[in-house]
């Protein structure tokens, strides 16, 4: 993959993440770095509203702190 293609792929992934974490009513967090980053940014934008954690096949309410 050429450098330009890699940059475009990363840019697309970041734009998609920004759209999802700022326009969705509910955030489901897993162990991925992307979902944790989304949670921190979302917290700054709208607070701890409708955050959930998916762990070991179960979903529970979740707070960063």
Using brief descriptors, characterize the structure shown.
3 strands, alpha+beta, globular, 65 residues
Roughly how many Å apart are the termini? 40 Å
Structural class: alpha+beta
Radius of gyration: 14 Å
Give the proportion of residues in helices: 40-55%
Main sheet makeup: 3 strands, mixed
**Strand arrangement, major sheet:** 1-2-3
The total strand number stands at: 3
Net shape: globular
What percent strand? 15-25%
Which stretches of 5+ consecutive residues score pLDDT under 50?
A: none
Tell me the series of helices and strands, N- to C-terminal: HEHEE
Mean pLDDT: 80
Figure out the total of helices.
Answer: 2
Question: How would you sum up this structure in a few lines?
Answer:
By secondary structure, the chain is of the alpha+beta class. It is 54% helix and 18% strand.
Q: What this model shows, in words?
A:
The protein has 65 residues and is of the alpha+beta class. The chain has helices spanning 3-23, 33-46, and strands at 27-29, 51-55, 58-61. The chain is 54% helix and 18% strand. It has a 3-stranded mixed sheet with strand order 1-2-3. It is globular.
Topology, element by element:
Layout: H1 3-23, E1 27-29, H2 33-46, E2 51-55, E3 58-61
Parallel strand pairs: 1-2
Antiparallel strand pairs: 2-3
């Amino acid at each position: 993959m050429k450098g330009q293609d890699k940059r475009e792929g990363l840019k697309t992934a970041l734009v998609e993440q920004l759209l999802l974490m700022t326009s969705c009513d509910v955030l489901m967090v897993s162990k991925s770095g992307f979902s944790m980053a989304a949670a921190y940014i979302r917290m700054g934008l709208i607070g701890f509203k409708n955050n959930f954690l998916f762990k070991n096949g179960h979903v529970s309410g979740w707070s960063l702190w």
